[in-house]
Design a protein that fits this description.
Elements: H1 2-30, H2 38-44, H3 46-49, H4 67-71, H5 76-82, E1 88-90, E2 93-95, H6 106-119, H7 129-136
Antiparallel strand pairs: 1-2
Helix pairs in contact: 6-7
The structure holds heme C.
The site of heme C has 27 residues, from α3, α4, α5 and β1.
């Protein structure tokens, strides 16, 4: 009986403390609501570019800190809509495998670009679906 009381007195609060600590840690590291572009990224992009935007060696360029994507930021909506099929140089390495067009609407493209801004380009720039539609009017294809 004594032992049971001790358990309730000391172990139970410790348990609650651990659960609360894990909860706060998750909240701090992932935020309350996942970024709206995250699921699109994971379903449509991560199989090639990797969960952390690391790419696949010489085949798929990285998105993480990609100088090519950051410098040609305004072209990203067109790349997603029409694909890319010429040689590009990303962070000093050349790539030349085609990226095929990806079927996404303006809102999904805006969300996935904002997700990349935050996760891979170290930028707090936020673009809108109207910006995406405007950029689509100027695609070279
Ligand atoms: C089937 C594989 C595949 C998928 C899926 C894919 N990509 Fe790509 N992506 C590529 C390849 C290959 C290139 C390089 C194209 C070239 O060399 O011409 C590329 C290039 C890029 C680039 C420019 C280069 C760089 O690394 O900065 C960006 C930005 C990009 N992709 C974003 C995306 C996003 C966002 C998605 C999801 C909506 C996506 N890609 C889905 C294969 C893929």
């Amino acid at each position: 009986m004594e032992l049971e009381k001790k358990i309730i007195r000391y172990v139970a609060p410790a348990f609650i403390f651990v659960i609360v600590a894990i909860f706060i840690y998750n909240l701090a590291s992932h935020g309350w609501i996942p970024h709206p572009g995250k699921s699109t990224y994971q379903v449509q992009c991560a199989q090639c570019h990797g969960d952390k935007g690391e790419g696949i060696r010489v085949l798929i360029p990285p998105l993480k800190s990609s100088d090519f994507a950051i410098q040609n930021f305004d072209s990203i909506p067109c790349w997603l809509r029409h694909g890319i099929s010429h040689e590009i140089v990303v962070n000093g390495q050349s790539f030349n495998q085609p990226m095929y067009p990806i079927k996404l609407d303006d809102i999904q493209v805006a969300n996935v670009i904002n997700y990349m801004n935050k996760e891979f380009f170290h930028s707090d720039k936020e673009i809108s679906s109207a910006w995406v539609r405007e950029r689509w009017k100027h695609c070279e294809q």
